[in-house]
From TrEMBL:
The lineage of its organism: Bacteria, Bacillati, Bacillota, Clostridia, Halanaerobiales. Keywords: Membrane, Transmembrane, Transmembrane helix. Residues 141-227 form the CAAX prenyl protease 2/Lysostaphin resistance protein A-like domain. This is CAAX prenyl protease 2/Lysostaphin resistance protein A-like domain-containing protein. InterPro entries: Rce1/LyrA-like_dom. It comes from Orenia marismortui.
Length: 242
């Protein structure tokens, strides 16, 4: 074996090819999300409602482009099937029911926090003060949940369908799942303890749902519920960019 081939093999051993692909795709993910944050911060309208709609539309467009990119790479370049990525409708009703049951705890917690807001750092889209505002918030939640399905699918396709697939193939189901949860947690680049714990919890729940159902349906529903709940009841759009 010539020196060039040996050096190439050593570099491949040092950085596995699957990890290179994950990191390259992660950079694309960061680029799209940082563009979203940039437009949220520096391109804004004077009318709050119009500004919120604009932010949401930009998120949907950005994540739709990422979905197209990721599906092209995984199916055409890496030769993964939709089933390997978790895109299937097997046991659709049961998987949806499981996700809804777990998501109800998340929604309830967000509503309880909204009812007891005393921190100025928490700026929800709507404050629940009576029955009418509560009913109104449910209508807004349904609309937001529907809009967040695309960003949620983008995130789950990337972290569960793509990244977890490679970690599972490399390290097995249990170790691969643990590594993927930790990767998801620290990929947010937020070292605050509360943020780490929150992202770890969400990563654990979505990984559990994905592993239990072998489908992205339940984890996407939970992820959309998570994003819609935090945007509506706690942090609004501009305070929760990811």
């Amino acid at each position: 074996m010539c020196k060039e081939e040996q050096a190439s093999k050593e570099r491949e051993t040092y950085i596995p090819s699957y990890l290179k692909e994950i990191l390259k795709t992660q950079l694309i993910w960061y680029l799209i999300n940082f563009l979203i944050i940039f437009f949220q911060l520096y391109v804004a309208f004077d009318i709050p409602l119009l500004n919120n709609i604009y932010i949401l539309i930009f998120k949907i467009i950005g994540h739709s482009l990422f979905i197209s990119f990721l599906l092209y790479c995984t199916t055409m370049i890496y030769n993964l099937s939709f089933h390997e990525l978790g895109i299937n409708f097997k046991n659709f009703i049961a998987n949806t029911s499981l996700a809804i049951n777990i998501s109800l705890f998340l929604i309830s917690g967000a509503i309880i926090i909204n009812l007891t807001i005393t921190n100025s750092k928490i700026t929800p889209l709507i404050y629940i003060k009576d029955v009418n505002s509560f009913n109104q918030s449910l209508i807004y939640f349904i609309l937001l949940f529907t809009c967040y399905l695309i960003p949620a699918f983008s995130k789950e396709l990337f972290y569960r369908g793509f990244i977890q697939y490679y970690f599972k193939e490399e390290y097995g189901v249990i170790i691969g799942s643990i590594i993927s949860i930790l990767y998801y947690t620290f990929s947010y680049l937020d070292i605050r303890l509360t943020s780490i714990l929150l992202h770890f919890l969400i990563g654990f729940i979505t990984t559990y749902l994905y592993k239990k159902t072998d489908s992205l349906i339940s984890s996407v529903i939970f992820q959309a519920t998570y994003q819609a709940s935090l945007s509506l009841y706690l942090f609004s759009f501009d305070k929760w960019p990811f």
